[in-house]
Amino acid sequence: VQLQAYGGGLAQAGGSLTLSCVSSRNILDFNAVTWYRRTPGGEREWVARIHNNNIESYAASVNGRFRITRDDARNTVHLQMNNLKLEDTAVYYCHTNVERRNYWGQGTQVTVSS
Questions:
Q1: Residue 80 to residues 7, 62, 66, 69, 98: CA-CA distances in angstroms?
Q2: Residue 73 carries which DSSP code?
Q3: Fewer beta carbons under 10 A from the terminal one: N or C of the chain?
Q4: In 3-state terms, what secondary structure has residue 108?
Q5: What residues does 48 pair with on adjacent strands?
Q6: Can you tell me the mean pLDDT for 14-23?
Q7: 50 near 40, Cβ under 8 Å?
Q8: Mean pLDDT of 1-23
Q9: Are 25 and 44 in contact (CB under 8 A)?
């Protein structure tokens, strides 16, 4: 499985960005796809998850601002990020676990400026 994450960039506080995670394998094979982020301080944080039954879950810090969706036809999971805050600055990674193996996208940088 290969995951490619893209869509990061520079945004102003209050702005929006959409990240995408494209899988080389049918995402219906995955129980879930998760977005994590690594902050400038080096901490890894769980951000959002979508299961193959479309149940979504979010970290408290992004709940109500971020939305995770899936496009099964394109084997892609999106993370719509609205009302961005300075503390959302991080490298964002998508992740899945298939057959007890972890797969990570390469990371995409999101920088939020004031």
A1: 10, 11, 5, 8, 24
A2: G
A3: C
A4: strand
A5: 35, 58
A6: 98
A7: no
A8: 97
A9: no
